[in-house]
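Severity: low
Component: inverse-folding endpoint
Summary: output formatting inconsistent between runs
Steps to reproduce: submit the following C-alpha cells with default settings.
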C-alpha cells in the first residue's frame, strides 16, 4: 500500500529544494546544510513498550488502538543538528500474525508500503529532539483470543546515519483501570481539610497484578500522610513550576476484572495558608518497574515512613463492564479556589552617576504572601512590572522579558532604541517569597538632582491595573531615584516622575530598595524571580516559580509513559492573549 499525504508532499518538495540549494530558510533545523558531525549520527526509535488490544467482538467492527512510533535526534544544535536526507523505517509484522491487524493510516504518516508481514515507510528530514515518526492503527485479529500476544520490530536506515531499533508488544485484552471522580468541595478557606476516598475499578478482561496510584497536587495543597509504600518528590524551582508534590504509591494485590476498589483509609487533602488557585490529580495504573520509572521522569523521590496505603473492595460482585481498554480514563483532576490574598510589594533603587556615565539599577517586586499565585489552566502571566525611565536618562540594557512601550504604555514598534517606559511580565506563577528581579543599565544623558521613575507591579491589562488578589495596593509602586539629593554633580533639578498606585487612587511611598529577605513576611529567604532564569538574561535570580507553559499539571499515559496534559493549550492561550495586548 502506497499513500501520499500533505506531509509527504511537503517533505518531497523540501528535499528537492535542498538538493537545489534553495532551502536556507526551511523550518527544519539544519535542513539546508546536513549536520557535518565527525561521528555518524545515531537516531533512536521508540514508543510504548506494550499496548493492550480490545478483544475481537462477537459482532460488529473491532475497536482500534493507536501505537505511536517516535524518533529521537539527540542533537541539541537547533541550527545545524537536523538530518536533511531521506530515510526508511521497516516494520517486521510477522510477530503479530494472527494476533493483531496493523494499518498505516493518518495524515501525519509518511509514505508506507505493506507487503505481507513487512511494511516499509519512507520519509525525509529529522529535526533535533523527539518527534512522531509513524502511527500504527492496531486491532485484534479475527480468531484471536484473550491473552494472545506478539511483537513488532522497527528498524531504520539512511545514508550517513544509524538507527537504534525498537520492539513493541501487542496483547489482546488486559486490565482497564478506571479512576472514579470524587465529589470534592472546590471553594475553600486556608486550613480547610476534606477526605479523598480514592476509588477505582478494573473494567478490563484480566486482573491487575498490583496498582500504581499517582497523586500530584500543586503548591497550595497538602496531603499530610506519608505512607511507607509511597515515594514523594517536590518540583525543583524553575519554569514551569507549580511547586507541586508528586506521590507514587505501589499498592500490592490482585485487582480483579469487574471489581471496584477504594482506599482502606481515605486520604486527607488540605488547603494550606498559601493556597489560592490549585489543582489535584489522582491516577491509577497497573504497577510495574517500567511504569514507576516513567512516572519518576528522572526526579529524585524519597520514601515515606508512615503506615501502608491499602486498597480494598468497594462492593461485591461484578461491576458494569465497559468495552474499552483506555489509558485516558485512568485519571481525574480537580481545581480548587481558596479565599486568600497575596501582597505584591514593588521595590526600586537609588543610583548616581555623572553626565555621560552608565549606572546599573535593580528593580522589581516581591510576593510577601501568604498565597502563591498560579494561573494553572489559562497560562496567563500573573502580573506586569511597569517601569517609567527617570528624566535625563536612557536605558542601554534591559532584561529579555521586558519590552519597550510608549510614554502612555502603548505598543511601540521600535524595540532597539531607548524608550520612555518598559513593561516586564512575570510567568504564569509567582510563588510566595519570590517575585521578579529586573536589572537595568541606564546612561545618564543629563545629570538632574532627584530625577525618578515609577516602578509599579500591576495587572497585565493596562486598562485594569489592580491586582485582584492584592489587598495592599499602596505598596505596589516604588521609585528608581537617579542622583538623589547630594548625589552626582548635576545642577538642573528634575522633579520626581509621577508613579502608578496599583489602581488604588491613593498616593504611595513604598521602598526604593529591594526588601530584606530575612524580614520577609513570607518567611522565605532570597529574592527570586517567577521565571527562574538568570538575572543577566530574563531578569531572574533564583528559585521563583514559573509555568510557561504547561497548563494543567494533569498527566496522561501512552503505554507506560506519562506526560504533562494540555501544555499545548496553555502555550496557545498564553500566546494569543499576549498578542492581543501590548502592555
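Observed output (run 2 of 3):
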Amino acid at each position: 500500500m502506497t499513500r501520499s499525504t500533505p506531509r509527504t508532499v511537503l517533505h518531497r518538495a523540501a528535499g528537492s529544494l535542498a538538493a537545489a540549494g534553495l532551502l536556507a530558510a526551511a523550518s527544519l533545523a539544519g535542513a539546508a546544510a546536513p549536520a557535518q558531525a565527525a561521528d555518524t549520527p545515531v537516531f533512536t526509535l521508540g514508543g510504548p513498550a506494550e499496548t493492550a488490544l480490545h478483544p475481537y467482538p462477537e459482532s460488529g467492527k473491532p475497536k482500534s488502538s493507536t501505537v505511536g512510533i517516535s524518533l529521537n535526534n539527540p542533537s541539541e544544535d537547533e541550527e545545524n543538528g537536523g538530518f536533511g536526507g531521506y530515510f526508511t523505517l521497516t516494520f517486521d509484522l510477522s510477530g503479530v500474525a494472527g494476533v493483531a491487524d496493523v494499518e498505516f493510516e493518518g495524515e501525519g504518516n509518511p509514505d508506507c508500503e505493506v507487503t505481507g508481514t513487512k511494511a516499509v515507510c519512507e520519509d525525509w528530514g529529522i529535526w533535533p529532539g523527539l518527534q512522531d515518526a509513524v502511527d500504527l492503527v492496531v486491532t485484534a485479529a479475527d480468531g484471536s483470543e484473550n491473552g494472545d500476544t506478539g511483537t513488532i520490530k522497527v528498524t531504520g536506515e539512511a545514508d550517513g546515519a544509524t538507527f537504534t531499533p525498537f520492539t513493541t508488544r501487542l496483547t489482546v485484552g488486559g486490565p482497564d483501570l478506571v479512576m472514579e471522580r470524587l465529589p470534592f468541595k472546590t471553594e475553600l478557606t486556608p486550613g480547610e481539610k476534606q477526605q479523598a476516598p480514592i476509588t477505582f475499578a478494573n473494567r478490563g478482561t484480566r486482573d491487575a497484578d498490583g496498582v500504581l496510584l499517582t497523586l500530584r497536587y500543586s503548591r497550595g495543597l497538602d496531603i499530610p500522610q506519608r505512607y511507607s509504600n509511597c515515594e514523594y518528590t517536590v518540583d525543583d524551582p524553575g519554569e514551569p513550576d507549580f511547586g507541586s508534590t508528586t506521590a507514587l504509591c505501589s499498592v500490592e494485590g490482585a485487582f480483579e476484572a469487574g471489581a471496584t476498589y477504594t482506599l482502606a483509609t481515605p486520604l486527607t487533602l488540605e488547603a494550606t495558608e498559601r493556597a489560592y488557585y490549585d489543582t489535584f490529580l489522582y491516577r491509577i495504573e497497573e504497577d510495574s518497574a517500567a511504569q514507576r520509572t516513567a512516572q519518576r521522569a528522572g526526579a529524585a523521590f524519597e520514601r515515606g515512613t508512615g503506615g501502608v496505603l491499602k486498597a480494598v473492595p468497594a462492593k461485591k460482585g461484578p461491576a458494569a463492564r465497559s468495552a474499552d481498554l483506555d489509558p485516558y480514563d485512568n485519571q481525574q483532576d480537580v481545581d480548587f479556589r481558596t479565599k486568600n490574598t497575596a501582597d505584591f510589594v514593588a521595590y526600586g533603587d537609588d543610583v548616581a552617576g555623572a553626565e555621560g556615565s552608565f549606572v546599573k539599577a535593580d528593580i522589581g517586586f516581591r510576593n510577601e504572601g501568604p498565597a502563591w499565585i498560579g494561573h494553572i489552566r489559562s497560562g496567563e502571566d500573573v502580573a506586569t512590572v511597569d517601569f517609567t525611565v527617570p528624566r535625563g536618562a536612557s536605558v542601554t540594557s534591559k532584561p529579555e522579558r521586558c519590552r519597550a512601550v510608549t510614554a502612555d504604555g502603548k505598543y511601540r514598534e521600535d524595540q532597539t532604541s531607548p524608550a520612555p517606559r518598559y513593561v516586564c511580565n512575570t510567568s504564569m506563577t509567582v510563588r510566595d517569597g519570590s517575585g521578579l528581579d529586573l536589572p537595568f543599565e541606564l546612561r545618564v544623558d543629563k545629570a538632574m538632582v532627584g530625577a525618578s521613575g515609577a516602578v509599579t507591579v500591576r495587572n497585565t491589562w493596562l486598562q485594569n491595573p489592580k491586582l485582584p488578589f492584592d489587598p495592599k495596593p499602596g505598596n505596589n509602586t516604588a521609585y528608581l531615584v537617579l542622583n538623589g539629593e547630594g548625589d552626582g554633580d548635576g545642577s538642573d533639578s528634575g522633579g520626581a516622575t509621577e508613579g502608578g498606585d496599583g489602581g488604588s487612587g491613593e498616593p504611595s511611598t513604598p521602598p526604593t530598595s529591594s526588601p530584606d529577605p530575612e524580614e520577609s513576611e513570607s518567611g522565605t529567604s532570597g529574592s527570586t524571580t517567577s521565571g527562574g532564569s538568570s538575572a543577566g538574561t530574563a531578569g531572574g535570580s533564583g528559585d521563583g516559580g514559573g509555568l510557561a507553559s504547561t497548563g494543567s499539571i494533569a498527566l496522561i499515559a501512552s503505554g507506560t509513559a506519562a506526560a504533562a496534559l494540555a501544555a499545548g493549550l496553555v502555550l496557545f492561550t498564553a500566546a494569543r492573549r499576549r498578542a492581543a495586548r501590548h502592555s
